[in-house]
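protien #1 (seq + structre)
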Amino acid sequence: MKQRFERFDMEMQSVVLENGLKVFYIPKPGFSKTFAMLATNFGAIDRAFTMNGVRYDTPAGIAHFLEHKMFEDQDGNALQKFGKTGASPNAFTSYSMTAYHFSCTDGFEQNLEILLKFVFTPYFTEENVAKEKGIIAQEINMMEDTPSWKAYVGVYEGMYHEHPVNTSIAGSVESISEITPEILTTCHKAFYSPANMTLVVCGTADFDRIVEMAKELSPKEAAKVAARHYGTVQETVAMAEVIRHMAVSRPNFMLGIKDMPLAEGESQLRRQLVGELAARILCGNTAPLFVSLYKDRLITRNFDSSYTIMPQVAAILFGGDSQDPYAVRDRIAAEIQRYAHEGVAQELFARMKKACYGLDVRMLDQPESLCHTQAESSFAGECCLDFAELHETITVQDVQEMFVRWAQPDRMTLSVVLPPKTK
């Protein structure tokens, strides 16, 4: 299928293979690099699942560990193979997705073959798994020494009672010690099925050749994707405050506001756009509250916000450094209540809506961001390039309804990393 997006002078070609693998190609004439991403709808939150009638409860950090181990092949390491072609490969694990990608200026087909082969062909041994535990343990320890990461993990720990988003993506040194080749193989069978995956290419390539290679190098049949378990949905937060002490000169904080999960049939892309717009109106870098907090020296330039959607999860996060995170929390809470009761001025709404649209348009010239966004959208059955039409449907009432939800009692968690306690 070929879709044309006239307002951006762009097109997207797509097909779903017989095994369920979704393939997308976004041409970028004139770009020197081509970017490819192979992603699976499997992340750190997918630890508990049922496959073939058997329930599995896997260790925290299993998706991240599996990402590391996928680069191992019987005939060498995939990173070394990419190195010989001159490509730039990498991978990441989020709470809801694992993705493997590369960019290259030439030799695209050779690099795509490497990507497809190693992701669909697991190779786990007792020796290479044991070796990886030491490597990942070092990575975990480095993350544990990062104040902003501790604040980030803490805010989800405080917001969610049972949902596995309340634990770190990488797990802990203790949890990864339980990982075995058998557990990794089970997770690969459960979630690395072509029916649970997406291939997105952006740049200069031949779509027919991409499809031909995907058919040839992906499994002919797709295993049934496992059923996931996330616990009972609860509207209120588990803890209003999560406090940790580290060697910081100034407190680092993350403020989370728990939103309602997506309703059945609701567009994830549209909810994301409304959430980002509400966050920008509330405390974006040109919002009245941001200017006031900055003028009062309660926030710094590293203050940022993000709206996140995952299965049975939706939340807005604000974070950065502050001499008084509690004052920032109280001012944000008061502004939410004001917008919930008084509404948002039409002029402010229109200005911030244009700003959000501009940021989304900027993404169109960033192949990595474009592939990432399309992979996420495809898992929700949507197309990321539909954002323009969806923007036009968003009203000031949509934003106020979100503020009304945020204003409900016990929806807010403050995660703070404070300087060491004085003796």
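ok now protien #2
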Amino acid sequence: MPHSNHGGQHDRMITVNNLTKRFGDLVAVNDISFAIRKGEITGLLGPNGAGKTTTLRMLTCYLAPDAGSVVVGDYLASMNPIEVRRIIGYLPESAPLYADMIVYDYLWYVGQIREIPAETLPTRIREIANVCGLAEVMHKNIGDLSKGYKQRVGLAHAMIHDPEILILDEPTSGLDPNQIVEIRNVIKEIGKRKTVILSTHILSEVEATCDRVIIIDRGKIAADSTTRELTEGGDTGNSVTLRVSGVEFGTLADAIRRLDGVSDIREAVDREGLTAANVLTGTASDVRPSIFRLIADKGWTLYEMKQEQQTLENIFRKLTRGGEHEA
């Protein structure tokens, strides 16, 4: 259940307005705006180099934006970076751990830096060890732990001061499939009580963990929606794959574009020399019967027709490659 330490006057935990960051000639983050509400698990999804990490570093006050603003809780980040850091827990992509320290000692050390009183710190370390599944390795050296356990120690580090907001950069990067499931479960459990933002380029990560997805590509927001709305279509519709003989692509495309419900048709490559196409529909309605009738009426031969539901993967591919067609 969403909680509030800052009075219930607003539902927004993070508000980003027109955020921009340049590195030389590269515009890493290009005038993006979004708001994240309490108790929401939001996935920042995009290909490598899209601007996700740069965005997270600005949210956590590690980088100053060139333009725009970040408000976290009640604080403007540029004016109150210390207060913002107090209510945020941040796990960078490679957790900055001290390999020669024992897990317990390391969490004690982080707790002291976070100004947790010495009399309550042992209890807090025990609580966080249980949440992150660290109880059986508390006496081990961090350097001797598996990648999955190191990631859990990083999570415990980010959460030891009981922050309201947790920001995780590629939290399952480099983990094996079992470790990925375990870390996802930990994140989902934390998400019941916290506001969580995680970045990833792995689609299944977002589908498995997040309530909402912000797709970012080349520094700009390509989509911002609940995970369900994105995958259920809305204006994204479906895609129908066709393989036909007896007609050139140009003629086929002209005929199919006139059908109701078709928003676009693109040529595809076919190894057997057939005319292949992907037909995109603007709605979730099924255009296959009208395509079938059209092909039969024209006397062309239909070899294959199959409809793909819009998976997050299709949407992601379309949105993050779409700019190339317009460039």
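The chain has eleven helices and 14 strands.
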